[in-house]
Each structure stands twice: as structure tokens, then as C-alpha cells.
Design goal:
This protein is of the alpha/beta class. The chain contains eleven helices and twelve strands.
Length: 275
Amino acid sequence: MEQERKIMSNFYGLIGEKLGHSLSPTIHGGVLSRLNENSTYSLFEIKKENLPAAVAGMKAMGCSGANVTIPYKIEIMDCLDKISNEAVKIGAINTIAFTEEGLVGYNTDYYGFGLTLKRAGIEVAGKTAVILGPGGAAKAVVEYLLDNGISEVTFVSRDPEKAAKKIRGHRIISYSELESLGNKDIIINCTPCGMHPVTDAAPVSRDVVEKFSTAVDLIYNPLETKFLKHAREAGLTSANGLFMLVGQAAAAQEIWHGQKFSDEMVENIYNDIKG
């Protein structure tokens, strides 16, 4: 990951539209306390039309770093002065460093997703994958899969024509087409469907889930979504999004502080959050 000289300050934050469910303050607070840093991490719920002004305001107030979540991982790129190599490749960012050289965007979802798969023992080389949703998180997921030898990727969208403008070079099908799709290896939910507080929803039926051997849900609240409940009942290998959340947060803090954290530290923060 590229490193930039940062402006030292005493606050960080998460930018998004609706953040009531977020565990980010707890996770980042755990990192900051382990670093013995007296800093705060706050939530910033921002309307889309106010996004540029909000980022400029955070810069003016001396913010050191910010994370970005749904639905601004793509739109916020227009607010930045520089974008790191992995973020350019992915086409979305989730981390901003407020530096003396300007605002620099990164994508640490890539690293967090990889840590999640490794922790769950999920191999992707030579496998086939179906990704639900074409948003910013899905872009990081597909780049990790491609970099690690996935043989085939299919995207599923409620509006394949619109999704084709965001995702190029991959097959995109509708949810009705997914119903008739043959068996594949890995299904990954990159949509917010099933996230708290609407926990009784699932992006696909159990009949669809049963066509796969592995299911990954990027949602972390609840830890077992209805989608993952279908996977458990069908006997699939599965993973939720909590370790990805912790992993991407640790990677963001590494950028902001210019240092590498130990695997033990990340594991301890994960265990604290999981309870």
C-alpha cells in the first residue's frame, strides 16, 4: 500500500448515509487504545448532495483519516486529490488519508476480504463465483478473486443493463436468471439485503444457495443473516463480514499511522468485537 505523509490530529470518522448499525467506532477505538493514542472516531451521516462539502469540512477541521461506506465508495472519488493504485484498479475507495499533499483514497476492503477467506479456509483458485450486487464492495471482491486465480465470475443485479456500466468484462445476469443458473462454487452477497434492522430478508432463496458449496456474506450485523442461515442449513462452508470489517479497518489504521500491525493485534480486536 502506498504511504503518504499525514497531518497529525485527534479525530477520525466514518462517512456514509445511514450508520446506526456501525461497529467501526468500536473497532477503531480498539486500535487507537492499543496504540495509546488519545483520538476519537466518529460517525458522519451525510446526504449525497452534501458529500463534497462534508469532506471539505472534515479537512478544514483537521481530520487525519476517514472511512467511507455505503453508498459513497464510488461517488467520493471525485472529492479526492489522489487515488492509490489498488483503488484505481478497483474503481472504489473506502479509506481517505488527509495528508499535507492532499486527500488520498485507498481501498482496504480488498485486504479485509482476503483475510476473511483465509480465516475460513476458503480457496478460490480454479473455482467459479457468483457475486450478488455490483456496488463498491463488489469491485474489491472481484479484484481479489481475479488476483487469486478464480476461473469464472458472474454478477447478479436487479438491473443488469445499469450494472453493465459499473462492471465491465464480466457476465451480468438478473435474479430471475440466477434461479435457472447451474451449480457454481462460491456465492458472495455484496448487497445490504438482510442487514439490521431488516434481518428477515435474504437476497436469494435457499434453493439458490443450495447450488453452491460456499457462501460469503459481507454483512456483519447480524453475524448470521438469513442468507447465511440458508447456507448453514444446507451444509455450506460460510463466512460473515465481521473479520473483513476488522481487517479493512486495521489496514486503514496502518495507512494513517504508517506502520504494520501484528496478526495477533488484529485477531485480538476481532475477538473483542465478536464477544
